[in-house]
Amino acid sequence: MIRFYFHPTPNPAKVALFLEEAGLPYEVVPVDTAKGEQHLPAFRAINPNGKVPAIVDTEGPGGREARVFDSTAILLYLAEKTGQFLGAPQDRPDLLSWLLFIASGLGPFSGQAVHFQHAAPQGLDYAVNRYRREVERHYKVLDDHLATRRFIVGETYTIADMSAWGWLDRAARVLKVESDPLAGFPNLKRWFAQIDAREAVARARAVGKDHSFKASGDEESRRALFPSNYPPAAAE
Hints:
alpha+beta, globular, Glutathione S-transferase domain, transferase activity
């Protein structure tokens, strides 16, 4: 059994999609990040970085419990465990390259674009422009790559597609546009529609819907989500 530590944000969504595609049994463990539950000692014992997603696999290698954090690490771990969605062996270099392109580029820049457009104080125009333009550049890289192919890696659907889907699903919020955020990236738009139409996507979107997560935006949630913005309490 896999315990899946979840909050309804893009990186956990990738893992939810894999679990649904692979048909693996799992238990959802909600982590309400706006309440600061990611900082509790019990969760920090699973992910010292205090971020979701994370998993605990009670049937890990050698029958031992395995703890895995970071969405890319989890996707690789589960794909290797099940032998699914890894593509052909000869595609491994491309798979790793595109996974890390998403993990180190598309994902972080998308997250920062969301932060500076929706959470940061007004007036930080340089930061807003910087991150939104970098997101658009990453979208263009993927759009060009997908001009002559159906999937990101090789000839089949892989964890690279799942990983990219997690963030592209939030493109309207990332680019701060109300509709058709991928209109300027036709190949990416076609690819996204193809992935988004999969039956497992609807099931992945339903994960966690039975839990009431706290809305962000108040002082409590800002301190929970952005603790490095606040000085540590003075020692008495």
